[in-house]
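Fold it.
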Amino acid sequence: MSETTTSATTAGENDDLIMELEKGGRIVIRLRSDLAPLAAERLRTLSAEGFYDGVVFHRVIEGFMAQGGDPTGSGSGGSKLPDLKSEFTNKAKFVRGAVGMARTAHPHSANSQFFIMFAPAPSLDGQYTIVGDVIEGMEHVDQIKRGAGSSGMVSGPDKIARMRPAAAA
């Protein structure tokens, strides 16, 4: 389980997503509907539609995070759904295993992209939406191919083979 400082990780199967990586490995993400109901519903909906199947982790920075969820693999794409209103909170912290919603400089621009933390990043607390926690398979997150340079853009990135709500997996 991740090291979040909150205790709302008992929702169970309805709030779990199962991510299978192309190179092998199963990751379970517990969505935090209590903190970010809009973002949690978005990830649940897109996962149920198969949106994330074959999508890459396009930006991966050692000691920071792995970002995916962009169907173009460029970091500038998203779903056809409208962008989400931010759901920032100080009730949870960006610690190892936390899952956040990626966005542009505009706070209300999260759509389909998300990131998983390799390590704590207090500078993100209250600035980005925390949508979930990795509760199983963090060792597989640790194996995701890293990018080069400060941008973390990955050449030959690792892919999500399949991502579904646990109830449908």
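Helices lie at 37-48, 138-141.
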